[in-house]
Write a structure and sequence with these properties.
Oligomer: single chain
Number of domains: 2
Order of helices and strands: EHEEHEHHEEHEHEEEHHEEEHEH
Number of helices: 10
CATH topology of the largest domain: DHBP synthase
Bound molecules: adenosine monophosphate, magnesium ion
Shape: globular
Structural class: alpha/beta
Number of strands: 14
CATH class of the largest domain: Alpha Beta
CATH architecture of the largest domain: Alpha-Beta Complex
Radius of gyration: 19 Å
CATH superfamily of the largest domain: DHBP synthase
Strand content: 15-25%
Helix content: 25-40%
Distance between the termini: 35 Å
Length: about 325
């Protein structure tokens, strides 16, 4: 297996201060550093520095109108980059650190590149001590989309980041495999009724319980508010077909399978998960692992509850259905 000298191990709880300091210096010098979170690996750059943010888009091959999420070491640190009202504060107190991104009105200091030209900015505090130590040391908001080439499945370990991005990243902080494995929930809180722009690690039911009402964007409004939903995502190099248990399905002659339930035909290779949580956790690495067979991948369509909504979103995008 190829090794990469950009990969530097860090401890989840107690990252080496010298390593964190080196990573933070790179960020302040306008370089890119990939970092682990509880969801997926992020590709970090100084959000206040338009030139650094442009490097992120270039390394990923990402369309420049798809805004980036900014990362913070604490709720208080967000105030430097966005306007935080009482409701946003309550959401932060309840769900942070954790996989919830809040879209808030941006302050002018946030580069327009990081905002994708919008007047708002996505903000998040990951549940990951090593990453929080890194953000604190940077002293600036760290813009960080998932650290994969645009359109590919998101990376849940450091080696995948190095293989996807190569020399585009100066350093990769490596703390092993991510826990949640599916990206953050994106919630727009700039209107009276919050809007769920992307299902993710915090299930919609939890937000509804906390907020009372959560809207789902529809039609053209969705594209305007959540530019990321415009683009093909999570696509492996082979075809992905969706099996809805209980419905008629033409099983391919030869195929790989991933899901919780047993498939109705014998697959050439399969990745079976013990639960739908585990399916969400392992989805991206399963897509990357199974694509190497060159065979189509059959993916079980999960129930909608809990992380199922986020799973459905990622599977339908991987299959090119949305
Ligand atoms: P990624 O970091 O690649 O997982 O993608 C970030 C997601 O957050 C994309 O779907 C973006 O469209 C969305 N996002 C980030 N900032 C904003 C914003 N200011 N307004 C709406 N959506 C945003
Ligand atoms: Mg992404």
């Amino acid at each position: 297996m190829k090794t990469y000298d950009t990969i530097v191990p860090v401890d989840f709880w107690n990252p080496d201060p010298a390593v964190i300091d080196r990573a933070a210096r790179l960020i302040r010098a306008g370089e890119l550093v990939a970092f682990p979170t509880e969801t997926v690996y992020g590709l970090g750059g100084n959000a206040l520095d338009g030139a650094a943010v442009k490097k992120i888009y270039a390394a990923k091959g990402r369309p420049s109108d798809n805004p980036l999420i900014l990362h913070f070491p604490s709720p208080e640190a967000v105030e430097s980059a966005a306007y935080v009202d009482a409701r946003a504060k309550r959401l932060m107190e309840h769900f942070w650190p954790g996989p919830l991104t809040l879209v808030l009105p941006a302050r002018d200091c946030v580069s327009k590149e990081a905002r994708g030209g919008l007047s708002t900015v996505g903000c998040r505090m990951p549940d990951y001590p090593a990453a929080l130590a890194f953000f604190a040391a940077c002293g600036v908001p760290v813009a960080g989309p998932s650290a994969n080439r645009s359109g590919r499945p998101s990376p849940t370990n450091a080696l995948t980041v190095a293989e996807d991005l190569g020399s585009g990243v100066a350093m990769i902080l490596d703390a092993g495999e991510c826990r949640v494995g599916v990206e953050s929930t994106v919630l727009d809180v700039t209107d009276s009724v919050p809007v769920l722009l992307r299902p993710g690690g915090v299930p919609m039911e939890q937000l509804q319980e906390f907020l009372g009402e959560v809207a789902l964007p529809v039609g053209a409004n969705q594209l305007k508010r959540s530019p990321g939903t415009r683009y093909r995502h999570y696509a492996p190099t082979v075809e992905v077909r969706v099996w809805v248990p209980g419905e008629a399905f033409a099983w391919p002659h030869a195929f790989c399978y991933m899901g919780v339930r047993a498939p109705e035909c014998e697959p050439a290779r399969e990745i079976r998960f013990a639960s739908y949580e585990a399916y969400a956790h392992g989805l991206f690495s399963a897509l990357r692992e199974l694509e190497s067979s060159g065979l189509p991948i059959v993916a079980e369509w999960p129930p909608e509850a809990g992380l199922g909504r986020a799973l459905r979103d990622r599977i339908s995008r991987a299959a090119g259905l949305s």
